[in-house]
User: Which sequence fits this backbone?
């Protein structure tokens, strides 16, 4: 069996982390403790998240990016007056 992918903080030090030494559960990358912690965190985030439609609205309202200048690439370098 493989080891758990999670890390855990060293007691008394907030910035020091060590790999978990437990074995991963069958069919998972995490031990039982860390697997439940991740599931709980994701579930809590989904339950408490606000529904947002702004991103869809913003992109629907934008004009196409290539309407004014066309879909051509502009090169940078000596041909535009720059020297390297």
Assistant:
């Amino acid at each position: 069996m493989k080891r758990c992918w999670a890390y855990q903080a060293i007691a008394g030090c907030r910035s020091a982390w060590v790999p978990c030494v437990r074995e991963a559960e069958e069919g998972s990358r995490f031990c039982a403790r860390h697997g439940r912690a991740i599931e709980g965190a994701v579930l809590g985030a989904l339950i408490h998240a606000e529904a947002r439609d702004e991103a869809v609205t913003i992109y629907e309202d934008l004009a196409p990016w290539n309407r004014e200048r066309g879909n051509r690439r502009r090169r940078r370098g000596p041909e535009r007056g720059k020297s390297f």
In short: The two ends are 56 Å apart (CA to CA).
